[in-house]
Description:
Elements: E1 8-14, H1 17-26, E2 30-32, E3 40-44, E4 49-55, H2 56-62, E5 77-81, H3 85-97, E6 101-102, E7 107-108, E8 112-118, E9 124-130, H4 132-144
Parallel strand pairs: 1-4, 5-9
Antiparallel strand pairs: 2-3, 3-4, 6-8, 7-8, 8-9
Amino acid sequence: MTDQPQMIFVNLPVSDVEASQAFFEALGFHANPRFSDDTAKCIVVSDTIYMMILNKEKFAGFAPRPVADTQAVTAALICLSRNSREAVDQITERAVQAGGTDNDKVQDYGFMYGRSFCDPDGNVFEVMWMDMAAAQGAAETAAAT
C-alpha cells in the first residue's frame, strides 16, 4: 500500500457558483468537472490544493453552524504561496481585474512578501512569497539571541 499525498479541500460559500468559477479561472486555476455540478465547482489550485465553491444552500448543508456573511466578517484567511514577489503582485492584480478587492495590505519583511485580496463573495486570500534560505537564517539568528 502506498501513501497518498496529503490534500486540502477548502470549502467556500458563494452567492453565484458560475461567477465564482469565472473569478478563479481568471486567476489561472481551473475547474475539475468530475467533482462539479450546478451547485458546486471543484477549483484546482495545485496537485494537492482544491477549493470547493458551493452555493450557500449547499454549503449550509455541510456546515455545523450558521454560515458567515463573508461580506461583513472574516471567516478564514486562506494563504497561498507563490514563487516570487512578482507572482504575488500578479495574482493580486488579476484578482482585482476579475472583480475581487485588493485589501491594500502589503507585508514586506525582506525574506517574506505578501498581499491580500477578497474574492467577490468577501472570502479573504493572503498570497505570499518567502525566501526559505533567508527565513531559516532569520530564525537561527532569533533563536541565538
